[in-house]
Design goal:
The protein is of the alpha/beta class. It contains ten helices and nine strands. It has two domains: 173 residues, HUPs (Rossmann fold, 3-Layer(aba) Sandwich), CATH 3.40.50; 92 residues, 2-Layer Sandwich (Pantoate--beta-alanine Ligase, Chain: A,domain 2), CATH 3.30.1300.10.
Length: 286
Amino acid sequence: MLILKKISEVRDWVRRKSSKGGQIGLVPTMGYLHEGHLSLARAARRENDFVIMSIFVNPLQFGANEDLDTYPRDLKRDSQLAAAAGVDAIFAPEVSEMYPYYPQLTTVNVTEITEVLCGAVRPGHFSGVATVVTKLFNIVQPDRAYFGQKDYQQCLVIKRMVADLNMPVEIKMVPIVREKDGLAMSSRNVYLSEEERRQALCLNEALRICRDLYDKGERSARKLLDAVQDRIRQEPLAAIDYAEICSAELLQEVDEIKENVVVALAVRIGSTRLIDNIVLEGDTGV
């Protein structure tokens, strides 16, 4: 596995691969890989000639009281998993390499769709995401970049940024990968105790209840959300950050489901914040 630490090394690698006429897929991650990340790598492997994965715990997207210092890191483990999934190279820079002037004066902000859901409770988070992804796109200049549906709002932010700024990269959203018990895979799952892990299943179960009611004909967002919240509140360790049904493209609240929507959850199980979502296809589509 080729591990690159410097921007200049990445650019040299990209130049060599591009000179052969090959297309490059980028998989941005913060490391501590799980099957969700690896599904992105495998999708990139199928659709590109070369695959590069970034592993960088980005300080710009963490708030003052969030888990930047304790976020799990294991580059040796990650490199072995990435190689098995078909990744050709890993870009694992130090903070000083990505941000030589920190804090940097130039950031990227996407408005409106970053002001709801996670953006409403994590101010500055999506500016940090958009900024680091812009830097990665400038460094790697990939043909395609791969993101997971679990971070639905993040995918939407990146898609809109790329469209608004005419960035020549195709954004691919890969479906959520779940554990056998239904819990959405996340690097933060390692923080959960055995009992917290059991109670965390309420997120997926609540979304399944929502989908079942929708499939039976319920179109009232309020009634669907009531069912979702009722299930989560059965767990004593669960505290809802948000539970919303929003339009799939602009994340605007809806009363009646007539178009494609995302049912989005953020729930704290003990001290661990988990997110999950499903997309419901509206009667008229979008």
